[in-house]
Design a protein that fits this description.
Blueprint lengths: L7 H25 L3 H76 L1 H22 L9 H12 L8 H17 L3 E9 L5 E9 L3 E4 L2 E5 L6 E3 L6 H10 L17 H8 L3 H7 L1 H37 L8 H12 L4 H19 L3 H33 L4 H59 L1
Parallel strand pairs: 1-5
Antiparallel strand pairs: 1-2, 2-3, 3-4, 4-5
Helix pairs in contact: 1-2, 3-4, 3-5, 9-12, 9-13, 10-11, 10-13, 11-13, 12-13
């Protein structure tokens, strides 16, 4: 039995506390009418109660200590039992590992070449699953991917062997992919349009190459398996087959196929048209195109005018005595008005009349000639501007992203092409108009000289 023995310091502190308390109670006693003896008696009673409480606490502590000792004993016995069980399980685990190793060796020996066969089957199943996921035939047979995935996982295990039916199912799926690649199949599918609307449409699958619906090419998104309309369709020459095949005439028709399952059609649709090419050239591109348009109109107008003038002059050559409203007729009219004058004066008059007609005939030729030289220079200006934009993008963002440089390079190349496209026809048109104008000018000059020679002969006679 353990006894509670207060220390000397505790006794001193308790005595001081009691003295202080006695003084305080004495003071209060004076005020409240309680004597010092009564106060001392109350202190003794309080001390006895404290001793009783301490004794009870000692008893509770001893009783709890015994219970805790019992719990500790039980815990030690349970730990010893658990350690023994753990040791037994470890021994059993080691025995099982040895047994599994022996069984695996025996299984490997018995499998022999079948193990290599199962490895090839797993490889073929994985490759086939990848091909099927990207194939357009997956639209009509979506469940085959799950079967191939389960078969591939089974091939990777050594605890379960595949059955003959499962191996034949793999062969069947490969054969069906080959067979379906040569068919044209029509079915009802949900197509996502560019406006975000989903509609049920008649979808025509041409082998593993194309999807056609409503005379448009459709694509299948491999990641989601959804059927989506292309953002842009290819040019009209690639759409002829799509329109003809949906007519169902049964005849052999030319058709554009995509051997890479929609990627080429997507690239063809993304290719910019003529208007977008001009827009890539920017302001300089519009200036070049406007210049080319003006040049073509001017050249055609002048060429038509010279052709009509040439016809009038040819008619005038037949009837020189009756001048009409044309370049040669006006020169002949001057001759008739001044043929009575001296030969030198008449020569000057006719020379003046010819010089008066030549500017009308050669009108616009200088502009055509200048335009043929200015168009390539404008293209060169666009090229320099585009390269400046490209180098600025490289300076700001680096050369890691080619999209940042695509705009400037596109403008540089497009303006060069536009400049050459305008300059080459302009040179040809200038040559045509200039040749026609030179021919008419020569006719007028020749006839003027002939009239002077005729007048000189008449004066000699």
């Amino acid at each position: 039995m353990t006894h509670f023995v207060p220390s000397i310091t505790a006794n001193i502190i308790l005595a001081l506390f009691l003295t202080f308390a006695s003084c305080a109670h004495a003071q209060e006693g004076k005020e409240s009418g309680i004597s010092v003896d009564e106060l001392l008696e109350k202190v003794k009673q309080g001390h006895r109660r404290d001793l009783e409480i301490n004794a009870q606490r000692i008893q509770d502590f001893q009783r709890n200590r015994q219970e805790q000792q019992n719990i500790l004993s039980r815990t030690k016995r349970a730990r010893a039992a658990a350690e023994a069980l753990s040791l037994q399980h470890e021994n059993q685990f080691e025995e099982n590992e040895q047994q599994i190793g022996l069984l695996e060796e025996r299984l490997t020996e018995r499998l022999g070449s079948l193990k290599e066969l199962f490895g090839v089957l797993q490889l073929v199943a994985n490759d086939a699953q990848g091909q099927f996921d990207n194939s357009l035939i997956q639209i009509h047979f979506p469940q085959r991917s799950d079967r191939l995935n389960a078969f591939s996982q089974k091939m990777g295990q050594t605890t379960e062997l595949p059955t003959v039916e499962e191996i034949e199912a793999l062969w069947f799926e490969l054969q069906r992919e080959i067979t379906e690649s040569g068919k044209v199949v029509q079915s009802k599918q949900t197509v996502l349009l560019q406006n975000g609307q989903e509609v049920a449409s008649d979808l025509l699958r041409i082998g593993t190459f194309n999807l056609v619906s409503d005379e448009k090419y459709i694509q299948r998104i491999t990641e989601t398996g959804r059927i989506v309309e292309y953002p842009r369709q290819p040019s009209s020459r690639y759409m002829t087959g799509a329109r003809s095949i949906e007519d169902g005439s049964g005849e052999i028709i030319p058709f554009t196929i995509d051997p890479v399952r929609g990627q080429l059609i997507s690239l063809l649709g993304a290719a910019p048209n003529l208007l977008e090419r001009v827009q890539q050239g920017g302001i300089i591109g519009y200036v070049i195109v406007s210049l080319g348009f003006i040049v073509v109109l001017l050249a055609l107008g002048r060429f038509v005018h010279l052709i009509l003038e040439d016809r009038k002059i040819r008619k005038q050559l037949v009837h020189l005595d009756t001048p009409t409203d044309n370049a040669l007729g006006r020169v002949v009219k001057v001759y008739q008005e001044h043929k009575t004058e001296h030969i030198e004066s008449l020569e000057l008059k006719l020379g003046e009349a010819v010089l008066r007609e030549l500017p009308k005939i050669n009108r616009g030729l200088s502009f055509l000639k200048i335009s043929a030289a200015v168009a390539p220079l404008l293209g060169l200006l666009g090229t320099v501007t585009g390269m400046i934009i490209t180098f600025q993008a490289i300076t700001l963002f680096g050369a890691g992203d080619p999209k940042l440089m695509a705009g400037g390079i596109s403008q540089a190349l497009v303006t060069t092409v536009l400049g050459l496209t305008v300059a080459i026809p302009t040179l040809l048109l200038h040559n045509m108009v200039s040749s026609k104008a030179t021919k008419i000018s020569q006719i007028i000059e020749q006839e003027a000289v002939a009239l002077i020679a005729l007048q000189a002969e008449s004066e000699v006679k």
